[in-house]
Amino acid sequence: MQYRLQGWSKKYELGIKEIDLxxxxxxxxxxxxxxxxxxxxxxxYQKSLFTELGLYTHFxxxxxxxxMHRSGYSGLQEHKKLHNKxxxxxxxxxxxxxxxHIEAIQVIDFLEMWFISHTVKEDRKFAEYING
Length: 132
Ligand SMILES: [Fe+2]
Ligand SMILES: [Fe+2]
What we know:
The chain is mostly helical. It has a single domain, classed as Hemerythrin-like (Four Helix Bundle (Hemerythrin (Met), subunit A)). The protein has four helices and no strands. Helix 2 packs antiparallel against helix 3. 14% of the residues are buried. Bound molecules: fe (ii) ion (2 copies).
């Protein structure tokens, strides 16, 4: 299966500098994790990449929620719920992969879905609110 997220694209940009920079870095971590899950069989290293992605995700979500708070965004609570779901999903995928219940490609699918449907679509709603 062809990996759908090729390179960073202008169409992923929301027009909020701080968030766009974080998303670019997040994108980089996702593509690195996806590549390493496919190409490496070093499980401790793969686990460590999941941890790196998880920690950055946590930072990014808190940072985004704080910005939403400062902007008086009414969708904040709803958005927080989506973030929590993604964190649960990431933890679940990590565990299932580590225990050999799912293949790398399934984790990659989850990460792609996340990037495309959350970062590009849900975060855009906030960008539209902020940018008027
Ligand atoms: Fe985001
Ligand atoms: Fe978000």
